[in-house]
Amino acid sequence: DGGQTPYQLSAIQAILLLLGLLFTRRRSTEWWLWVAILGVCGVLLSPLSAPLWANVSALAVIQFPWRLLSIMGLAVAIVGAGTATAFPAGAARAIGTGLLVAFVVITQTPRPGETPFLTAADDINLTLAAVNRFEQAEPAYGAGYDDEFLPRWADLAALQSPVPPLPEIAASVRAASAMAPGAGVSVTSEGDAPLALTLSQFYFPGWQVALDGSPPQAAQPDATTGLLSVAVPAGEHTAAFGRTATVPAQAGTILAILGLALLVLVLFFSARRALPMAAAALLAAGLVWIIGAQPAPAQARQASVEFPVAAAPGLDLAGIDAAVTRGQLTIRPRWFVRANQPDLLVEWRLTDAAGNTISALRSAPRFGTWSTATWRPGALM
To answer: 23, 117, 144, 304: which could join 86 in a potential S-S bond, CB 3.0 to 4.6 Å?
Structure first.
């Protein structure tokens, strides 16, 4: 942690845990299970487990042992809540529980003197320029999916470094895609030489490409960057990219369904009264999933421009996806890089039929946090 104090249980959590261990009146099997979870997490967080972390490669997926504190904190809360059972009467238990919750909330409330980093200064104007300056100054610039969840075949150095001088590509590309992430993209290219086309999408198993309507074939990652790539022959061709469910994903779905079915059967045979509750919970979860999986369809908008459009030397606007959802216009441009680019700025203007400016935006085109200077010729961004 760079010399900093690692995350740890607070003194309040330790007091709450001690009270729960001492004063819980009824120690059921579930109670002992959470005590065991506490013990396992405590051992894994201690220096005693260092050889285990060093020799079991599967534990590397956790990255940091202190992430087990989330599980340990839940166990502390459950065990500590048993303190309220020390009171004999129901009214006393209710009062004791309220005092216990109030004690935790009051002691854990952030105070400006102790947490100055949580207090915003009054003279800060939160603009795009200020956010950009902050991100440039911070070592975790743009930390997110592009760093933490990079696939193994992606080369971070090749992605974030300026591209070395490469020959210009003599080809034109038009692109049309669905607004939904992962829904796929259709690309039409025309040129006198073969084209190694890469998309601003990391390759993952399940991506397929169909060339000129042929049966879909498994796509491949670009050898340099790890992005989705396809070799397009010379001439005019259309490549349709799409993603399908892999065998492990389908197997995981089947196992999840079987697990839920097994849980319902266990509840049915072990406690008949729990069946209506389980059915209601499953029904509620299903309704939430159905509602969440059926968003209001976006109204597609067709651009009245013939693509591609030259946006800068060696950079074409290959297509635009536009959709209106709940009164909000979303525009997703796609750029085809024919030659090396500097760090560019793009200005967008939204005008009405009379030509009056309704909204304007000036920003730098990026893929993740990487500017146009890192875009390689032959890439569709």
So the answer is: 23
